[in-house]
Fold each of these.
Amino acid sequence: MARIHAPGHRAHRAHRALAALALLAVSAGSVTACGGGGSAHREPAPSASAPAVPEAHRTAEPELHMIDNDGHRLAFHVTEGHGPAIVLDAGGGEDSSYWKDIVPGLHAATGATIITYDRPGLGKSEAVPGAWDVRSAVSDLGTGLRKLGVTQDVVLVSHSQAGEIATYFTKENPELVSGSVLVDASLPPLYTDEEIARLVAANQPAVDAAKKDPSQPRNSQLISVAESYAPMHKAYHQVSWPDAVPATVIVSEKTPFDGSPEDAQLWRDAAASFVGQGPDRTLVTAKGSSHDVPKDRPALVIEEIGKMAAARG
């Protein structure tokens, strides 16, 4: 399967190396929008700007908490508020700073406690050697929330690869997660045996390049994901989301794929299929957005999180 990259994407490819495998995709490219197949489907008008932050909320600063779990330390950043805690989980290769432009507006809009965190080897968190393991990632998130005293009413917001963490975490903790917003997330229906094989083959050059300089954090993350990628996603394809936990799925118009309409359509189809598999699920298309919906459509992301928080609060 050929991948076509415009010259302007060459610098961008290096930045998106981890996303290339973790999402099983390559740099974002143009595609056509998908008609919905879920229980509900909305296509909001494009709006790039986040809501203005009132002066009263601009002084809120996150507090750093270092959490120990299974021999390593993890950085959790907490902006105090009230009501359901909103947990923001960034995609592959990204740390908590991915949400820096979302947190102030979200805190202003909801007044909720906002929690972001750095997975191992990213941001202020310690690295963990070996293959990336979604079960370990679930343990890291669960331990962090428990030690922060968050034991109920979590609204879990997950971008990209973090959708895999969200799926396992929510399945194991349906009493803790009251609702979820999955932002162009990696979802189980995508990972058929055929698609796994296609994506692994397409992204092998990125893995080979990363192995030439494994000391770089993004490269080491890419290598660790690649080591367990195929078996992990074969298992992930069979995982179901609990019916008791509502979910809003925001799918980007362009998806993570560049030059591959077939894979882009499969990505959109996976989002629609996920929504159609259970009750209380809504599909929202982020018109005009690349895979980085929180960057391209922050107001939309804040709006959908606010709706979920209000409904579950």
Note: The chain has one domain: 13-312.
Amino acid sequence: MAFLRRTVGSGIRRYSQGAAKEWLTDDFLDSLRAVVGSAKVSAAAVVREQHGHDESMHRCCPPDAVVWPQTVEQVSLLASTCYSRGAPMIPFGTGTGLEGGVSAIQGGVCFNLTQMDRVLELNTEDFTVAVEPGVTRKALNHFLRGSGLWFPVDPGADASLCGMAATSASGTNAVRYGTMRQNVLNLQVVLPDGKVLHTGGQNRRPRKSAAGYNLTGLFVGSEGTLGFITQATVRLHGIPEATVAAVCGFPSVKAAVDSTVQILQAGIPIARIEFLDEVMMGACNRYSGLSYAEQPTLFLEFHGSTGGVREQVEATGEIVKSNDGSDFAWAQEQEARDQLWAARHNAWYAALALCPGRKAYSTDVCVPISRLPEVLVETKKDLLASKLTGPIVGHVGDGNFHCILMCDSEDDDEKGRVKEFAERLARRALAMDGTCTGEHGVGLGKRQLLREEVGDVALSTMQRIKAALDPKNLMNPGKVL
């Protein structure tokens, strides 16, 4: 990989570890500056390091340069310039990914899209809004205050909406409101050669369409390997009349997850149902200053009319009681609910605090709801046998859960055990007709598992799509496929 720094009187000095990159010249960098201005192009080592990794354990692979476009026209011109020179291109949003999706493993140019941060078009009567890639989910919901609407897809991190589309993000509300796949109506995408594509037609925002191939669905979850998502039109939802949250402990993992399955089978329209095992609850108590029982626990939330929520709570309470669950700890006022869910959202940092100085690797699998009790019980046994610290937290309402595995990056034996455990967990999910990733994506670490999951024919079809849209393999190369 080539490393760059600015030097007085000599432009760029190149430090090479391997074959030289023919495209990496002063002239090339000058062509990028001509599009966005000198202040919006950086080859400084510290900037490149910041853009060479996400929150995963994958090693940092810095790009050779970072650019900050302000408009879709600039993204198009920058992409065309890179394409003509054969320079790899890596989209960058907030950097909150967990599968190494922003690592520049072949070097290249990182496109930091955070300064494209406008809410472009709000249609309250149609429940839609169009946003640029720098708009985060919290910023959008702040913008929507007073409109009676909100955007419910909540992966925990304050990720950008277009980044969430690129990774097909999910989160705590998916059981009721769906994932990004169900909430994206149209995308504006800059293709690798600079052409601008509107996946559903320019400015179109119908709730559904049967016109042609589902190009929007193709780019949702593409992880930056097919193009730059520069605008997303998403569904909005009405803020419910009443919201009630609750916490309930259980004597065992199986009892908690059995309750989840039975709540869903009963058709109760629960908004959130999150599982935290006893290790995760202990970590959350210490990190967030709480005093919940350290046992397998469900965090639940109910949305609807006042009467409807009351009925949901009563029906859920009966199911919980039949599985020896504790009495609900309630939170109805906004402040109390925010405090309760803050503990859940801080689970990643609470887990890190369990083992100061260690890094964390968050696994991510999803299975059919009926197999959830079995896979969680087997996973707990595997954790104990592997002698690993791995709190479990999950969006169990849609069969998705994570082990946050603590790992000493200097301990090769422990790193090996973490890797082997993660692969066993993924293959256990595949054996139960599930998927190796429910929301984090494939990125760098799960490419072989993707092949095992979908098979050679499906994988070769994906490869042909990639080759058709990105024949030079310049868009985020080395990811997914």
Note: The chain has four domains: 2-112, 119-238, 241-351, 355-441.
